[in-house]
Amino acid sequence: MEQEINNHVESLIAIERTKSQVDEFITNLDDIREWTDDDKEFLESFKRIYHTGLDQLERFINKLDEDGDKLDESSILYYKRQLVIGPLAAFLPQYTEDKKYWLDQSDVMGVTGNMGGSSNSSPVWDNKSLNVPVDVFNKMPEFMFTVISETNDVINSVLTGTFISPIVNDNTLPYIDKGPQSRIDEEYDKGRNVKPHANHMVKDVELAFDISAVSADIFDKVKEFLVEDSDFRLFAQSKKMNPFKDTVSKASNLIVNRGYTKGEEDLSVATDLFGSQFDSEDKMAFELLIKGDDKDRKFKLRTVKGQLGSGEEVKSEPIKD
């Protein structure tokens, strides 16, 4: 599953007061974004918490426990974050005990399972190591991927070159007795250090092989602890997600058509997400032309120049002593 940070629930929270209200009075909801009935019901339940108090907090946590699989991971993380930093945070422990989605966790859990390719003790001839923990690497901005890769290319070429010179090319004793070529060949199998060779600080791949053998078991243990169908979902979301490239929480100038009744007539008005009358680009560019005896003046009403009412260019007037 593709990992992403989205503003799915934040957009809905700006529009919805209750599920029935948003279904009845937002006339272009499907054009804005697709929200399920479950999305709307969870949001209504969440908003009621700060109107009715602890009983509703307990109901919301129970609803999350029973039907949380109907929400996307970003929405669950959003609700949890708001409750943890909210005014009722002190009451969470008594309501969340043994409930799904509330186990203490961190995306560094299972970090050992990703160490195979990050250690300096990794192959020189077969491939190269990251020389940075995998979990840290996965959270970096994209330009850092290139920097680290190019840096490791240089380091590897220097190391390989210095290894070739005294051990491979200079086949005088005692180096020839250390079986340099066999150690290179064995790196592709089990590592150079499978046989004594009397050389210090020689890179090997034993750790990479060992970690590869137990990596799946490590994450199985994490999955077993967190419960696969609930808390592990949130763990996997945080573990794999890169905040620099997986974010799709982008602001947009959406038109929300809100219905209302005037007398017996049903009308609709275009607003932004928060209910203010929608300002289009055309409205923002509107100019008022006033003809005068000496010259005509244009007023851009939504600018400082237009609001000052002079129709003249605004000049900087530094403060003088």
Secondary-structure content class = mainly alpha
Mean pLDDT: 77
Strand residue content: 5-15%
The proportion of residues forming helix, as a percent range, comes to: 40-55%
Supply Rg.
31 Å
Let me know the largest β-sheet: 2 strands, antiparallel
Describe the global form.
flat
The total count of helices amounts to 13
Strand order of the largest sheet: 1-2
Q: What's the number of domains?
A: 3
Low-pLDDT runs: none
What does this structure look like?
With 321 residues, the chain is mainly α. The chain has three domains: 8-108 and 219-240, no CATH class; 111-214, no CATH class; 256-308, no CATH class. Helices cover 47% and strands 7% of the residues. It contains 13 helices and four strands. The strands form two sheets. Strands 1-2 form a two-stranded antiparallel ribbon. The chain has a two-stranded antiparallel ribbon with strand order 3-4. A hairpin with a 2-residue loop joins strand 1 (256-262) and strand 2 (265-271). The longest helix is centred in the last third of the chain and has 35 residues, at 206-240. It is flat and about 100 Å long. The relative contact order is 0.11. The model has no long low-confidence stretch (mean pLDDT 77).
